[in-house]
Amino acid sequence: MIIKSAEYLISNVDWQKCPTPNLPEYAFIGRSNVGKSSLINMLANNEKLAKTSGTPGKTQLINHFLINQAWYLVDLPGYGFAKVSQSQRRSWEQMIENYLRKRENLVNVFVLIDSRHTPQKLDIDFINQLGEWQIPFSLVFTKADKNTQAETSRNIKAFLNKLRETWEFLPAHFVTSTVKKTGRDAILSMIDEMNTE
Ligand code: GTP
Ligand code: MG
Asked: Where is the EngB-type G domain (predicted)?
């Protein structure tokens, strides 16, 4: 897919204030600092589209971007961000849950996992929660440039094996690096396919 246009539309705390749900929508989620905003920028071919930061907790709202005048990309706040109050965290979680469960044009959620680490309970729990809510998702293993290929593969394999404990079928998965610019075409192709379904 060729990206002809990518524009920022709006940021919300309330899913009901999000743009009219008349176009297919794809959301990016994962723990704080995993690389959601960076990945959106790589996909859109625009380094300045979504705000990124070395400090976790940068994205705090539901951010909508319109791509090719045809579909929405959504940047969400990270889960598991420790440096906020309990009540702040709860309100983020509620915001994300409402958005994920109620947004009617949401086609697929991309769950980002840091490929540097062995399987983390927080990520597995979140994925199992998506399953309970029956929300379609794919996995994206990020920051593949930070490890050797062998180590990245080992972590991915371990993660998928962990998922096999609770899931009969495994979701599609992608491996990305915004430094090496890898994984972009595969994700865009999948979105392209889902857009035409
Ligand atoms: P929050 O909005 O805080 O939840 O974070 P986020 O998931 O949006 O992460 P963001 O895109 O802001 O990136 C966090 C940090 O990771 C930044 O310093 C990025 O430059 C870095 N980063 C993101 N993707 C990659 C990658 O593929 N490789 C490397 N080496 N660094 C990355
Ligand atoms: Mg972000």
From this structure: 22-197
